[in-house]
Design goal:
The chain is an alpha+beta fold and 354 residues long. The chain contains 7 helices and 17 strands. The chain binds pyridoxal-5'-phosphate (PLP). Pyridoxal-5'-phosphate binds next to α5 and β14.
Length: 354
């Protein structure tokens, strides 16, 4: 099928102690590369030693941010094997991002095979301590050395890997979040549904403000009416109100998270009522005031689920479930992490062995 040449690193780095890992600082010995040139398509998939890239200062990505990325993890199973969680969903979503950014789509099978081949070569880097994993970061950058504003004619697809420690090394502690009224993350017609660096660049200021005021995350409102809840930080968000789980619908400015999708599928399979719809901040805080907001949590690959213990909006505060993790949040966490790390069976066909 897909065979990629491997140029091995002359010297391999020592594996870090998983208890000291800081997210995204340590990288493995190799990376996967594939080039695109107009007329040739995507070509020359290969594994090479992890090393700096050489680009012209005029490379388009530096100026106009024509770039997309993804994030997924490889997990160490109890039997010592390594597996990925719904990796084809990441490849497909990357192609959806590409379409928005006028980046030529990747051949999906080759892209997944490249990720697989890299993780297989780096399998010793997948840590085995509880809660640890190997974070995989595929990305595509526009490489034309040209300042004209148009789509690049050449691109680089690159995959790097980073061992990550347990997200909840100190136990799952619900976080405090606040509604951001000024900055918006995305707007209708914009790039909110894509994983592109520009979305993140635009979100950093609000994140800093939240941190300065003692909050862990920003609760984003829609960019048009500043009324409806969209996401929390760089996670999707869900609320349990009156026994039903409500989550913002995918309007185009919300990122279609794979953890979000997996949670919705689990919740539906458990027979819980699930609603994907618009939720205004007013509705949410009214429900909280009336004691009907039972749980709140964010979802994403890094944290899996992140319970929310307190929300602030202007001068209004709402404590959720006495600041404790709720039962549905806990069950989602236990089920998803069980499937991801292979300690629970996977009746959904979500995991892919490496
Ligand atoms: C990646 C991302 C998510 C979560 O997606 P997962 O596929 O669940 O990891 C949510 N929101 C934003 C803005 C993201 O970039």
């Amino acid at each position: 099928m897909h065979e990629f040449p491997i140029q091995r690193a002359g010297q391999c780095k020592p594996k870090p102690d998983p208890s000291t890992l800081v997210f995204g600082r340590t990288f493995t010995d190799h990376m996967f590369l594939m080039d695109y040139h107009q007329g040739q398509g995507w070509h020359d998939g290969r594994i090479v030693p992890y090393a700096p890239l050489t680009l012209e200062p005029s490379a388009m990505v530096f100026h106009y941010a024509q770039e997309v990325f993804e994030g997924l993890k490889a997990y160490r199973r109890p039997d010592g094997g390594v597996q990925l969680f719904r990796p084809m969903d990441n490849v497909r979503r990357m192609n959806d991002s590409c379409e928005r950014m006028c980046i030529p789509k990747l051949p999906e099978d080759a892209a997944l095979a490249g990720i697989q081949a890299l993780v297989k070569l780096e399998a010793d880097w997948v840590p085995s301590a509880p809660g640890t994993s190997l974070y995989i970061r595929p990305f595509i950058i526009a490489t034309d050395p040209a300042l004209g504003v148009h789509a690049s004619h050449s691109y680089l697809f690159c995959v790097i890997c980073s061992p990550v420690g347990a997200y909840y090394a100190e136990g799952i502690n619900p976080v405090r979040i606040y509604v951001e009224n000024e900055d918006v993350r995305a707007v209708r017609g914009g790039t909110g549904y894509t994983k592109c660096g520009g979305n993140y660049a635009a979100s950093i200021r609000a994140g800093q403000r939240a941190e300065q005021q003692g909050y862990a995350q920003v609760l984003w409102l829609d960019g048009v009416e500043r009324k409806y809840i969209e996401e929390v930080g760089s996670m999707n968000v869900m609320f349990k109100v009156d026994g039903a789980v409500v989550t913002p619908k995918l309007t185009g400015s919300v990122l279609p998270g794979i953890t979000r999708r997996s949670c919705l599928e689990l919740l539906r399979s458990w027979g819980l009522p699930v609603e994907e719809r618009l939720i205004s901040a007013q509705e949410l805080f009214d429900a909280a005031q009336a004691g009907r907001l039972e749980e709140a949590w964010g979802t994403g690959t890094a944290a899996v689920v992140s319970p929310v213990g307190e929300m602030a909006w202007n001068q209004t505060r709402a404590v959720v479930n006495n600041g404790q993790i709720g039962a549905v949040t806990q069950k989602l966490y236990d089920t998803l992490t069980g499937i991801q790390w292979g300690t629970l069976p996977d009746p959904y066909g979500w995991v892919v062995p490496v």
